[in-house]
Amino acid sequence: MQKPELDVQTVVLLAQSADDAFGRCVTLALQKTRATTVMISLYRADIDVLEVVAGAGQRSELAIGRRLPRGTGLGWHVISTEQPVLVEEVYTSREAHFLAGRPRPGMYLGVPLLDPDGRVLGVLSADTTDSPEILGDADAQLLLLLGQVAGVAYSRWKALDDAQRSARQYEQLASLSVQLEALSHPDDIAREALNLLLALSGFSIGVVMGVNGQGLTYMTMIQGDVEVTQAAGAALREPHVPRGLVADVLATRRSVAVADYLSYPGARPDMTRVRSALAAPLRCGEDVVGVIGLMNLDTPRPLPAEIVSLLDMVAARVDRAQERIRDFQNMRQMREAALRSIGRMLEGRDGETSGHTDRVTTLSLRLGRALGLGDEALQNLRWGAYLHDIGKVTLGDDILRKPGPLTPEERRAMQKHVVVGDHMLRDEVFVPREVRAVVRSHHERWDGRGYPDGLRGETIPMLARIFSVVDVYDALVSKRPYKPAWTHAQAMEELRRGAGSQFDPQALASFEALFGYDG
Question: Which residue in 30, 76, 74, 90 sits closest to 54, CA to CA?
């Protein structure tokens, strides 16, 4: 007959997972003892319950998944004493938990489930409910041996699962870092981060809260359970005094995890479905500028240190991505200011009225929006307006400020400024091709008689066609060394005479509509 020790070794060698090891242990215990039911319960320290994870025998299928709070079930005596517990008449014990729902005769034997370092992981128990059988020393010795083996097997498989899960998490975190590098909008960054957190954690809801200058919080992003996210949207998006978990994170400037939200002192009364939650600060330098968090609805969830670390790591990646966007925005603002200054310096040297650059920029953007341009195209149009006459820096004042008509030679020199400007900007890697197209082509004509390339119709870049209308209009209504300022009505009549010859008819029609011009 095979020895129990060999049977136990077989459990460890053949098990394919922790659950499989537990299943083999309870089956073997049921075969080798006089018990009617055998169960394994793990201690969940984060929520302080004993959870039945494996069972064999009478009514065992009813037990699996049950969570017994502290004080319910004889297994708690095993946990507190870390020693085997034998109760001969179970139905007389107030702490006993009966699967049938009412006291039944029988014996109970529970032994601690130990990890390799001797720490109690849970309880391996056997009972003889509804049976006259008696559990003795041999049964206790077998259960102790199985409890040790099951604990070792569980620890081994848990370590392997943790390692594999950590590897997957780091792989996905690396992927998230790459994805965030490609994003340029805070909402997109928050959405990607929350989606990853929800996928890795299994939580119901992910949320990002911002903090305004007055210290009020407001929701910037929520992902997860559709019904809840829609219901929570309006109220949380309005700035409000921080409360609950968010307030604790802002006060402590560190992560806060709450496994049992209902017993949490800072629980919000309007969060009745939240059972577990955790949140971490989002930073800008030394300042906390927001909070990123997870919530699980209806069912408490364990909150091991690994999931808090995961949240912290994602928060750090969001911080870096947001910082990159802020740096980019600051750099873009600096470029905007520099380019605008160039335009204003050029207008002064050209003898144009003060404000020409700002006026043509404002009108160009209005016209561009009317024609349906997107954000990137509008930025290129704005930069083109700043730089459209940059090539004139090579011209002398005798041409730029000449009060009378230019000679043919002077006109040819003047016309070269668009090509010169294009060439000057080619080596500036931050200036897009579309901006240079405004500089080079804003003197082209719809009928092909413009300069420098004689482009016609829609072969003229769209941004140059838009700017051409605005530039001529502002030149007409402004005083120059060679002419007085025209009225708005005079300028519009002159533009209309150029529709289909000098100007793109659609661009001109949209420009007229900006002023409600009816002809």
Answer: 30
Q: Which of 82-91, 315-324, 325-334 bottoms out in mean pLDDT, i.e. has the lowest?
A: 325-334
Residue 333 or 119, more confident? 119
CA distances from 231 to 109, 191, 226 (A): 50, 18, 9
Q: What is the pTM of this model?
A: 0.49
Cβ neighbours of residue 79 closer than 8 Å, sequence gap 6 or more: 43, 50, 112, 120, 122, 123
DSSP 422-436: HHHHHT-TTS-HHHH
User: Could you tell me which residues are beta bridge partners of residue 108?
Assistant: 87, 127
> Which residue has tokens 């001109």?
508
473: pLDDT confidence band, cut at 50, 70 and 90?
Answer: very high
Measured CA angle at 429 (ends 428, 434), to 5 deg: 90
Q: How far apart are CA 375 and CA 387, in angstroms?
A: 19
Cα 78 from Cα 259, distance rounded (Å):
24
Burial of 324: CB neighbours in 10 Å, binned 0-12, 13-18, 19+? middle
The span from the CA of 404 to the CA of 482, in Å, is 6
Amino acid 108: pLDDT:
92
Question: pLDDT tens for residues 378-392?
Answer: 989 998 988 888 888
DSSP 8-state code for residue 416: T
Give the C-alpha separation, 269 to 263, whole Å: 12
Instruction: Give, for 377, the enclosing helix (H) or strand (E).
Output: helix 375-387
| Contact call for residues 106 and 129 (beta carbons, < 8 A) | yes
CB 443, CB 417: distance < 8 Å = no
**CA quadruple 95, 96, 99, 102: dihedral sign:** negative
